[in-house]
Each structure stands twice: as structure tokens, then as C-alpha cells.
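Journal club prep, notes for RB
We'll compare a predicted complex against what the paper describes. Inputs for the BES case:
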Amino acid sequence: MQIQFQTAGPVAGAPLSAIAVLVFEGPVLSAAAEALDAETGGAVSRALAGRFKGAKGQAVELVAPANLHAAQLLLIGAGPKDAFNAQGAEAAGAEAYKALKNSGSTVLDLRFDLGPDLLAQAAFGVRLAAYRFDKYLTREKPEKKPSIQTTIVAAEDPDAVIAAFEPLAGLAEGIAFTRDLVSEPANILYPVEFAQRVKALERLGLVVEILDEPAMAKLGMGALLGVGQGSVRESQLVVIQWTGAADHATQPVAFVGKGVCFDTGGISIKGAEGMEDMKWDMGGAGAVAGLMYALAARKAKVNAIGILSLVENMPDGNAQRPGDIVTSMSGQTIEVINTDAEGRLVLADALWYCQDRFKPKFMVDLATLTGAIIIALGNDYAGLFSNNDELSANLLAAGATEGENLWRMPLPPQYDKMLDSMGADMKNIGGRAGGSITAALFIQKFVNGLPWAHLDIASTAWMKPSSRAVIPDGASGFGVRLLNRLVADSYED
Ligand code: BES
Ligand code: MN
Ligand code: ZN
């Protein structure tokens, strides 16, 4: 789908079009809605006689109103006018697209009469809502495919909107990159393939290094390698660097992602039901890759590191066994009680490597780490665990701005003993109680005291069903917006 910015007016060539306008709560017609009301001899006013009063989430579709050169006219509730903001504009754009995508019209004509920044945000909402992973649908009937080919954003000053949209377009591409990775099945996207797709991002100015199994063995990454040893797919550690700060020597910020391309559980194998979901157990690494894409695409003035630990967790004659003891790069030994608690094992070596090599300002890891976080928070919050209040505050604020909610969870030292092992420095599970917390406490042992935050995104990486138009069902891309905002608001030159 194409997005164009131009002054309002009839669409050239007169294709079948659908117009969307805002109605604020009251109802209070926007200027564009007033104009259309006049043009149609009061069709909009008549539509307001029912329950539609412009509240957020409400919408009314008028089909072929008389005297209007459009096939549909959608009225979108925008809530109280004085509270309308970027999030509202984005949601309205997304809802317009979602409501009209299968209408038969080929053009979505957004008449939002807002300032350039809000119009750009509305276009961003359309872009995110129009994401679709349809590459394997070979027999889809044309009438099932979205009919909207073009979105026209009506603007008084199109150039100003184009300029405001540019960084958002880069962000949207980063999010789509993440969604594609997360949506791919594990027979297509295994560690080497994932690494190669990231390598191709060097075209954006990123520097991408790939460490193979011999390189990781040399570094002593026994925890990560143990997880991948039952798979015929080779494990990969990907190091992505973006150097955008004026001073190339400025201490970087760092992001580390769990990239389990498929998680069967290993020898501690999972049940059959829902196991297909474990193709998206690389959602943390997917988000870090999409974030690095977005930072490069919008030329962020920051030095940033992205590290992806890519493995496949399989049962096999060569797989690691419950009771095995592995030695991590940090030198700490781990008794692997449950091979299904593999995410923390791959993060342990990736985080240690990251702090050891780059000495970053802070590290944020993202991981679809525990089913327990879904039980605790439901699907509208990811869990935040951190040893640093300032970093936590910045993350919480960034999440609130971007509609990617975090909830801070505790890291109680008195729970640490749940990880005690008789035969090694620690074991890899703590028990059922506080499962997300003991997982985070485990990871904390590998950050060497650096400011660090862990985002458990098992609850938010995949949305089915999704409750918001900006996130179509499936891969959400959670984390990309949040961390892009964190960098933009707190860590750029
Ligand atoms: N990848 C899973 C966690 C997960 C569950 C992600 C559901 C997304 C949706 C993780 O590797 C796992 O298996 N965790 C176990 C930990 C347990 C063995 C301590 C879990 O949550 O059951
Ligand atoms: Mn697992
Ligand atoms: Zn997992």
C-alpha cells in the first residue's frame, strides 16, 4: 500500500474511494466533517442522531451518501477535542484503514485536517495497520485481499507532513522487519537464515558481525552452545553496530535479544498443544534487529549495539540432558535442570559478551522468556525487571508514549537461593513460584553489575486476537517503538 500526501480534493482518475473524517466527542464535527456535511446536504448530521457521539473507539460508516464522489464515508470517533494527541491520530488512522480495507474501494482518502505532526502520525497508524504477512498465501481469492491500494493524506502543507513522516517511515520499516522475522516459520527462519537477513542490513550503514559455533566455543560460551547442540541448525551470535553519535568513541547503549528460532523444550519437551507458537520464541532478537533497522533508517545520533543469540532448541541424540552442567563465558557453572528454560542460558552468554566487549552505558535485554509473565500481566503489559531506577523510569515513560506498556516487577535478593544448586554455581530454574522473577534473577548474574533492564515480552510479542488496529493479528513488533523512543528521548546527542 502506498501513502501520498497532497492537498484535499477529488482523487485524480476518480477511482473508487473511501473518505475518513474525525468527529470529536460531543459530537463536534471537524472542519472536514463540516464540509462533507454541507456537500452531502446533511448526511453527516443525520448520522449523528444515533448512538455515535464521537467517543474514542466509535465509528460509523455511510455508504454512498448522495452528492459525494466517494463510495464510503467513515466517521471516526476521536474523543474529546482538547485531549486529542499523537496517539489519538495514530489510532484514528489505523482504525480508518482497518474499517475500510475490505470495502472494495481502492483509495483511502484521509481528511483529518490536523497539523503536520498529527497527520504524519495518522499516516504512521495506517502504515502499521496495513502490515500483512501474506507471502505464503498462494490461492487467496482477490475478494479476500485488502482492496485499498493507496492512502491519500489530505494536507494544507504536504511538504511539512512529508518531512514529519520521514523518521516515522523508518520506524515503520523497522517494525515491519521485526514482524516479518517473527512471522516466518522455523523451517524457513533458522539461525543462519536469520543472521543473513540481518547481515543484509549493512546497506543501511549498520556493521554486522556473525560469530559461528567455533568462534563461540573459543570464547567459552558453553551456556548458549549447550542449548543449540541438539539441533542440526548451527547457532549464531550476531553483533550489530550503529555508530551515529558525533563522537564515534561515545559509550554505546546496548540491546540483547533472545533468538530461539524454535523452542521444542529440548529433552524436557513441551506438549503438542500450541507448540507451533514457539516459532516466535525469537521475538526478542527480532525486536532488537528491527530497532537497529529503525535507528539506522532515521540516522539516530547515538552509538548503539544490538546482539542476537540465535539457536534452535531441539531434542536429539546430541541434545543436552537435564542434569548437565555447562560453563558459561563468565566462568560461572550452571546445572541445567530443565532444558526448556533455555532463554536465560542463551542470554547469559550474550549479556556477558556484550558488557565484556563494549562496556556500554546500559544493557536492555528482550526475551519471550516465561509463560508465567502472561499469567501475571495478561497481554497488554510486558514485564520490566531492572537493577537501575533511572533506566526503569525512562523505559516506563517511553512505553507509555508509544503504547507499549511495561509493568515493573521486583528482583528480590531473598529469592536468589531458589537458584542454588548442589553441584554447580546455580541451576537454571527456580520452581513454579515467581517463575518470571527467578528467570530475571538468573539473568542478573550475567550483567556484571552494569545498569541493566530485562523485558519479558512473552506476553506481548504475538497478539491473537489483537485488540488494537495498529497491531494486526500476529507478530506485534513489540519493543521496537519503545526502545526507539527510549533512545530518542534520553540517549541521543
Ligand atoms: N519460550 C518459553 C516461554 C514462552 C511461553 C514464550 C509461552 C511465549 C509463550 C520459554 O523458553 C519456556 O519454555 N519457559 C518455561 C520455563 C520453565 C521451564 C521454568 C515456561 O515458561 O514454562
Ligand atoms: Mn523453553
Ligand atoms: Zn523459549
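Talking point for the session: The pocket of manganese (II) ion (ligand 2) is lined by residues 263, 265, 340, 342 (CB under 6 Å).
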